[in-house]
Amino acid sequence: MSINFKPKVGQVLDCNYGHYPRDLQGGIIPDRVDAHMPPEMIKHRLVIVLNGKLNDNSSIVVPLSTTKNELKISKGIHIQLDSGVIADLKHFHPKTCWAKCDLVQTVSNNRLNRPMLVERGRLTQRIPNQIVTLIQIAIIRSINATNFLV
């Protein structure tokens, strides 16, 4: 079930990006333009909301990943979130992860849900403002607009 509220900046949510289309043999169909295409984001991912007030049914989000990319970290476009920044979740246990700021995207709120906690209930968490600011700066770097940074 998707969210029925306007998410707050810094809120941690689960996003269902869907999957790549496959042929009858199970291979990815890479050139189908009316579906996800490699290397676009797929599957369920934790995301951080950067703007939940675009309109009535979409939000700007940045996905999180536990895969480290040294090159993108050195360029300042992947931001590290230390273990414990995000609460222990049913499908995501506390570990170091990275905000992939080069993959910022507007998604339908129908793709978003509050992640399930290890125990009962769903997560209602916002990451600290300092981390949101680092993510916003990294997005500016990822679109090659660093001349706007003071």
Supply database-style keywords:
150 residues, alpha+beta, SH3 type barrels, 7-stranded antiparallel beta sheet, 2 helices
User: Which structural class do you get from the secondary structure elements?
Assistant: alpha+beta
- How many structural domains in the coordinates? 1
Helix tally?
Answer: 2
Order of helices and strands: EEEHEEEEH
CATH architecture annotation name: Roll
* Contiguous runs where pLDDT drops below 50 for at least 5 residues: none
Q: Enter the CATH topology name.
A: SH3 type barrels
Question: How would you describe the overall organization of this protein?
Answer:
The longest helix is centred in the C-terminal third of the chain and has 14 residues. Strands 1, 2, 3, 4, 5, 6 and 7 form a 7-stranded antiparallel sheet that branches. By secondary structure, the protein is an alpha+beta fold. It has a single domain, classed as SH3 type barrels, CATH 2.30.30. The protein is built from 2 helices and 7 strands.
Summed up:
It contains 2 helices and 7 strands. With 150 residues, the chain is an alpha+beta fold. Strands 1, 2, 3, 4, 5, 6 and 7 form a 7-stranded antiparallel sheet that branches.
